[in-house]
Amino acid sequence: MPASMPASLPIQTERLILRRPEMADAPALHHIASDERVASTTASIPHPYPDDGAQEFIAAIRDNTDRDQLNLVIQIKGSDVIGMAGFRPHEGHVELAYMIGHAHWGHGYATEAAHAIVRHVFANSLHDVILARAMTRNPASEAVIRKLGFRQTGVADVDVPMRGGVFTSSFWRLERADRHDG
């Protein structure tokens, strides 16, 4: 049985702060989500991104932080908002999710933020399993998942209405017992 998340936010890493989004973050998040290179790597970001999409998203998730769902802004310490990371309920477990603005790809920020989310879930809940998935045409996302110690459980074609088609996706699983870093 999952337990409630304690007030252990924001989460800080060596370079990042993961915190609840604020309406002031909307312009940065809109800029990131509006980039087709970012949107096309997800199953949930529409493209073109609506003008009020970031404000609506923040309003919808800002107060929805519990044991089964958490959406946090990724901010470089002392600098810019560069994306989002969190988890959501999926098939009786939680599923890892993240997005990083294109300008910040290739710097290890996705791995650092996703690692913080994994540690947060295992430290603050009784969830013993975290799931992840990625479109196989996004090998960088698969690399992040692999670096975190997830093991691949399958590959399948998935209908992605937001992308208007079927896309091959890889599915991943990480169990609490497999973690060696807390």
Describe what this molecule looks like in 3D.
This protein has a domain at 11-128: Aminopeptidase. It has five helices and eight strands. The protein has helices at 26-34, 36-39, 53-61, 109-124, 139-147, and strands at 11-12, 16-19, 70-76, 81-90, 93-100, 129-135, 151-160, 165-175. The protein has an eight-stranded mixed sheet with strand order 1-2-3-4-5-6-8-7, sandwiched between helices. The protein is globular.
Summarize, please.
This protein is α+β, with helices and mostly antiparallel strands. Helices cover 26% and strands 32% of the residues. Strand 4 (81-90) and strand 5 form a beta hairpin.
* Quaternary class: single chain
How many helices in DSSP terms?
Answer: 5
Biggest sheet features: 8 strands, mixed
- On the 0 to 100 scale, the average pLDDT is 91
Q: How big is the Rg?
A: 15 Å
The rounded distance between the terminal residues' Cα atoms is 20 Å
| Strands, total number | 8
The CATH architecture name of the domain at 11-128 reads: 3-Layer(aba) Sandwich
Shape assignment: globular
Q: Flag low-confidence runs.
A: 1-6
- Approximately how much beta-strand content do the residues carry? 25-35%
CATH class of the domain at 11-128: Alpha Beta
DSSP helix fraction: 25-40%
- Order of strands side by side in the largest beta sheet? 1-2-3-4-5-6-8-7
CATH topology of the domain at 11-128: Aminopeptidase
What is the H/E string? EEHHHEEEHEHEE
Structural class: alpha+beta
CATH superfamily of the domain at 11-128, please? Gcn5-related N-acetyltransferase (GNAT)
Domain N-acetyltransferase: 16-178
Family: Belongs to the acetyltransferase family. RimJ subfamily.
Protein name: N-acetyltransferase domain-containing protein
InterPro entries: Acyl_CoA_acyltransferase (IPR016181), GNAT_dom (IPR000182), N-acetyltransferase (IPR051531)
